[in-house]
């Protein structure tokens, strides 16, 4: 009879059993602390492959706050042979989470091995895998960081879970934060760290949700980002609290809120400034009225005294000195009246270049300052008091020149702008002409910038401090807006916005016309294009005298637009008068070529001060019906019109 033998079991059988177990198991060499074996259940559970695990040191997989805590774990296992512990592990996708593991110490062939496993049953493992997979799918698309933070009864805390979006949001890996939490806090400004400590302590005491908004500079890019954090507490059996939270990047929202706050503050300052000016304007108007009355008496009596031939030379000199002081007093009274409450502008439709270019050029060039103008073509017209706005830009030119006593540069840009509701605080949406004046002067100190429009505020040794107050008042009364920016040692920029009129006005005779007369003029409209405002006004007046309606524009681009619009409206122009040479715009020759594409039958008159120009000499070859050499008199203009339109009669 045979007896059972005690033959050794083949190692392959142990390996097969090890791999077939559903319990995740990893074997670690106790001395080297390196992984020597894993089964398929562990690789499936952890997401690592066997190749990624074999030979790795456990410190790369389980995260401890310090080497001392890790050493204590190994020493305890050597004494007790078995223990259950909680560690924080890192998954291949970068997520870190708290894990509960069972550890056993086994000795084989004189070497000690640490066997790590779990006690979950198969059905629980399958369910756990499904839940974890669903969680991974959700976390992959969440645009923020999900975390868990354990806060024990002794008020000590540590992260037990951080999703892998951590590195993308702040430039620090989840692993680094778990192992060295201070590497996160050192990038948060101190005042916000203190705020977090105090607000979290209050939320923990009340067991209520915790909210926190904080800035942090991205560790890799150096850019400042703003984050919003919210966390909810869950009480643990040991008396601690598990906080589950979410952190999102709100940088764009924060910047928008800051911009809205700044705009609100600026709008409030604008309102205060206007109220202040209105009050001071009322007072200034009354003072100016009384001063002018006194000056009238003073100047009248000065005139009478000067007629006294018995006065000596010394007395005459003193009277002249009094007279000069009186003239300065008159100027001051005029300035007071300009921004006084009753000084409303008398409006007319004009091109902004009229009150910008010449007034500024006269002052700046006379002070040795280089000035250049950049004008949009066509430039919309505005309803303006030319005298008041000329004074505005004279004051801006004077300020620029005063800031550059050794000379410098001024750049003036005039452009059309269509603004939305919030584009410029204090201005309604609509069409505006935007005029910017930029100098290369000494700049304005930051502490003075908010007061530059205040009446009587000045940093100059001489002056009344009324120049920019007048500028502000006049612009406001025109329904516009002015703002200033400046950098010391670099220069200053003023931005002026004036409400614009995109369409040109048809001017008729000022006399009251009958219905038939108005219809006849409307059907006899001429389009005038010239870059000189005075020439446009003169031609308009002269043509109205001959019974024509007039639409005036500055350059070719606008002329084409007006001509095309008139054709579309069924009221075409009878003819066009085109200046041959236009500064900063399309001239007469090119304009006519474009007009002939719209209307091959267009009647055009060429006008120029360059008599020897080949086009003036051979105007018919270029498609013009007649020419008007500058300067011309009214009779010459009438003769040209009579030849081109012999059947037309005056209304």
Automatic annotation (TrEMBL):
It catalyses: ATP + protein L-histidine = ADP + protein N-phospho-L-histidine. InterPro entries: CheY-like_superfamily (IPR011006), HATPase_C_sf (IPR036890), HATPase_dom (IPR003594), His_kinase_dom (IPR005467), HisK_dim/P_dom (IPR003661), HisK_dim/P_sf (IPR036097), PAS (IPR000014), PAS-like_dom_sf (IPR035965). This is histidine kinase. NCBIfam families: sensory_box. SMART domains: HATPase_c, HisKA, PAS, REC. Residues 525-645 form the Response regulatory domain. PANTHER family: SENSOR HISTIDINE KINASE (PTHR43065), TWO-COMPONENT SENSOR PPRA (PTHR43065:SF42). It is an enzyme of class 2 (transferase). The keyword Nucleotide-binding applies. It comes from the Bacteria. Residues 286-502 form the Histidine kinase domain. Residues 10-77 form the PAS domain. Pfam families: HATPase_c, HisKA, PAS, PAS_9, Response_reg. Keywords: ATP-binding, Kinase, Nucleotide-binding, Phosphoprotein, Transferase, Two-component regulatory system. Its EC number is 2.7.13.3. The modification 4-aspartylphosphate is found at residue 579. It comes from Chloracidobacterium sp. N. Gene3D superfamilies: 1.10.287.130, 3.40.50.2300, Histidine kinase-like ATPase, C-terminal domain (3.30.565.10), PAS domain (3.30.450.20).
């Amino acid at each position: 009879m045979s007896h059972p033998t005690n033959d050794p079991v083949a190692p392959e059988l142990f390996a097969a059993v090890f791999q077939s177990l559903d319990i995740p198991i990893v074997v670690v060499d106790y001395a080297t602390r390196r992984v020597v074996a894993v089964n398929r259940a562990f690789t499936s559970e952890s997401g690592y492959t066997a190749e990624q695990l074999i030979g790795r040191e456990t410190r790369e997989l389980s995260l401890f706050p310090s080497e001392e805590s890790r050493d204590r774990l190994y020493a305890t296992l050597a004494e007790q042979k078995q223990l259950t512990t909680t560690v924080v592990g890192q998954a291949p996708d970068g997520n870190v989470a708290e894990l509960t593991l069972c550890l056993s110490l086994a000795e084989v062939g004189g070497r000690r091995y640490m066997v790590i496993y779990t006690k979950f049953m198969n059905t629980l493992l399958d369910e756990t895998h499904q839940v974890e997979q669903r969680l991974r799918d959700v976390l992959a698309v969440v645009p923020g960081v999900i975390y868990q933070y354990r806060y024990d009864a002794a008020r000590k805390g540590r992260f037990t879970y951080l999703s892998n979006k951590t590195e993308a949001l702040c430039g620090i890996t989840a692993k680094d934060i778990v192992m060295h939490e201070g590497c996160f806090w050192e990038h948060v400004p101190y005042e916000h760290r203190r705020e977090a400590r105090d607000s979290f302590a209050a939320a923990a005491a009340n067991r209520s949700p915790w909210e926190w908004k904080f800035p942090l500079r991205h560790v890799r890019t150096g850019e400042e980002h703003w984050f919003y954090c919210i966390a909810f507490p869950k009480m643990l059996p040991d008396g601690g609290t598990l906080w589950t939270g979410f952190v999102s990047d709100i940088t764009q929202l924060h910047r928008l809120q800051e911009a809205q706050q700044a705009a609100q503050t600026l709008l409030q300052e604008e309102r205060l400034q206007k109220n202040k000016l209105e009050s001071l304007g009322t007072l200034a108007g009354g003072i100016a009225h009384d001063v002018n009355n006194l000056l009238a008496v003073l100047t009248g009596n000065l005139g009478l005294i000067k007629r006294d031939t018995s006065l000596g030379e010394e007395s005459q000199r003193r009277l002249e000195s009094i007279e000069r002081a009186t003239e300065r007093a008159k100027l001051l009274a005029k300035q007071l009246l300009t921004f006084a409450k009753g000084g409303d502008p008398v409006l007319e439709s004009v091109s902004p270049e009229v009150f910008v270019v010449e007034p500024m050029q006269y002052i700046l060039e006379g002070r040795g300052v280089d000035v250049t103008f950049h004008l949009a073509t066509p430039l919309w017209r505005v309803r303006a008091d030319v005298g008041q706005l000329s004074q505005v830009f004279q004051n801006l030119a004077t300020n620029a020149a005063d800031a550059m006593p050794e000379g410098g540069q001024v750049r003036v840009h005039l452009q059309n702008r269509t603004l939305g509701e919030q584009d410029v605080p204090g201005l309604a949406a609509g069409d505006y002409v935007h005029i910017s004046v930029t100098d290369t002067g000494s700049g304005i100190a930051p502490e003075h910038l908010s007061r530059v429009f205040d009446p009587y505020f000045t940093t100059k040794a001489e002056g009344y401090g009324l120049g920019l107050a007048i500028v502000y008042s006049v612009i406001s009364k025109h329904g516009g807006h002015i703002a200033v920016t400046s950098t010391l040692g670099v220069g200053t920029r003023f931005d002026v916005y004036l409400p614009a009129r995109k369409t040109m006005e048809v001017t008729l005779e000022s006399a009251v016309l009958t219905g038939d007369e108005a219809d006849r003029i409307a059907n006899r409209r001429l389009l005038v294009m010239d870059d000189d405002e005075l020439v446009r006004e003169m031609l308009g007046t002269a043509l109205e005298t001959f019974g024509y309606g007039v639409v005036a524009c500055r350059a070719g681009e606008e002329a084409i637009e007006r001509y095309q619009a008139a054709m579309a409206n069924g009221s075409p122009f009878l003819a066009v008068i085109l200046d041959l040479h236009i500064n900063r715009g399309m001239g007469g020759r090119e304009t006519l070529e474009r007009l002939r594409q719209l209307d091959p039958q267009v009647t055009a008159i060429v006008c120029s001060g360059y008599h020897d120009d080949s086009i003036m000499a051979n105007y018919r070859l270029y498609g013009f019906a007649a020419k008007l050499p500058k300067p011309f008199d009214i009779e010459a203009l009438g003769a040209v019109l009579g030849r081109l339109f012999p059947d037309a009669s005056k209304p």
